[in-house]
Write the structure tokens for this entry.
Amino acid sequence: MKKYIRRDFLKTASIAAVGAGALSLTGCETKTDNSPAKNNGKTYEWKMVTTWPPHFPILGEYADALGKWVGEMSDGRLKIQVYGGGELVPALEVFDAVSQGVAEMGHGAAYYWAGKLPSAQFFGCVPFGMNAQQVNAWLFFGGGLDLWRELYSDHDLMPFPCGNTGGQMGGWFNKEINSIKDFVGLKMRIPGLGGKVITKTGATSILAPGGELYTDLDRGVIDALEWVGPYHDSLMGFDKIAKYYYYPGWQEPGSVLELIVNKNAYNQLPDDLKNIIEVAAAKVNVLMLSAFEEKNTEYYLKMKKESKIQFRQFSDEILEALRKYTGEVIDEIISTNAMAKKVYDSYSSFKKNIYEWDSIAERNYKA
Amino acid sequence: MKKYIRRDFLKTASIAAVGAGALSLTGCETKTDNSPAKNNGKTYEWKMVTTWPPHFPILGEYADALGKWVGEMSDGRLKIQVYGGGELVPALEVFDAVSQGVAEMGHGAAYYWAGKLPSAQFFGCVPFGMNAQQVNAWLFFGGGLDLWRELYSDHDLMPFPCGNTGGQMGGWFNKEINSIKDFVGLKMRIPGLGGKVITKTGATSILAPGGELYTDLDRGVIDALEWVGPYHDSLMGFDKIAKYYYYPGWQEPGSVLELIVNKNAYNQLPDDLKNIIEVAAAKVNVLMLSAFEEKNTEYYLKMKKESKIQFRQFSDEILEALRKYTGEVIDEIISTNAMAKKVYDSYSSFKKNIYEWDSIAERNYKA
């Protein structure tokens, strides 16, 4: 039976194919002109610096894995030594270190470079922005990656999408947040664009040292914080001291991780090694998201079963207010930076369109 | 400001990392013992047979791309000649052809082999099953891929997840479907598990030749059909003749494509080429889904703007009835096949858990 159907599919499909323009599959392939085309027998020893502590759960582990996979695929011709943040250069100097050729590669997230490049954060995470599946579609087929490469080109860097956290959580609170007014006076650890957004509610975005977060929350030095999701948050022990765990993670709906490669180093590689790097980054893209989903599921269920945490959902009224403030924060950024405007215009127009499709295809589907 | 936050993150993260068990990243790596470990300088010329017409939009194009990428990464040491369905072997003989070594590789979907292996369809698509993001988490980190390899091992095949269609549409109808009773007597082209499900509603699952679908629907020989999503359906011209386009695509919420490799051929490869194949499949995994999302968005918007098609949503009552019948269809399969039961138990238990996480993280998030 299936056999008939399939044969039929093929007949029809042949017809269909006639009408279809060939799809560009090259969304993430970039070649340079001056590179040796062929395997030249040379062995390359590269350094990869990262913004993560060595072997940090999932994020650092996949930086390690990328190095391992490139080594395996190249049969040892491209050896990558991976350094945790602070081991070779400080975590927040990864961009400069790779740009200057101190290391050939880096793994981190584009929003860490927002101080230098305001538009970079749109390649990392955007509050009320696209989720992992949607942002990949934008990067690979909506012009996102081209803009990213345009932005980094002046810094002698080639970026590759290289992982995604999936949806995160909205954070830990010791009091219920029943209205947007409950943010007034709240001292919350929340970095980046999300921090700027809650400042507009009347809350204070606190820069408490991470190593002190547990103690600070426990002693009431801060009232609230957001970290990542159930897996990483549980490793930090927040479920042992906070009362309420809020969702959804409006501030980080699908944060993109990046691989950056020094352009001069990249251009010296033969084509096969260039391709190996790019394809390894794509493998991290799919596997890291899968790992986040699996671990967050496991730890969310564990937390529900074993802890006294009360889960709470931000009301629509609260989310609408946060969304409005997010618009204001983004407007402030793009009104003073032409490249940021160009990137955000592309991002937001793609988002608007894909949400129309999402609203019928995924939104209305429940398994 | 960002700088401080990030440094703090690192301090805390170091603490967090202590508590974390190392994550297994090896979800899709499989080594065999008798393979040459090192690049032996040999060149391999392989054939890849596929279930798609040559260069079929997205699906066939990514089979071509996989061959190209493997060739590039291996610097020509592993050359893959890609054949469309019927060019070397008929589309539905891909499994047997690769199993018997007629070709070294195949690209298609596991549910095509349901006649031979009832459990295979759970690796392809499951009505009311997991979406692309969730099914990847199951395959790579929930034991799914291990079971898939166990199942195919007896057939001398090694499967790799190699693409996903994302959410599809529910199909084309010439009358409104306002209740489950409106399926009674309906002649609908819908293959696979979905076809078995609608048979239980009193509809007839029709096996009309694909090449005749357009004419059959136009002339009323069939009353309804489902194909893929806005992109592929538009190429077929269904928007020119049908009245209603229903969603969501309950019957195919995220169909997995597969790469199959003949085990004997695979075992003769040195490790670097094995790794290259596996990582190329992962690249197809992420890029194909992105391509489907982008193209379906584009064609959905075009259809909304330019055609007279009326979009309709299946009611909750209809979906609940279809879900109940899906349960019956699956029960019939797993009650007579131990391996199918083993696979579905793993699938459904993972699905139950990840839906709990999904229900707070993604479900409540609107950009």
In short: Chain B touches chain A through 128 residues (CB under 8 Å). The two ends of chain B are 26 Å apart (CA to CA). Residues 1-22, 26-33 of chain B have pLDDT under 50 and may be disordered. The longest helix of chain B spans residues 271-306.
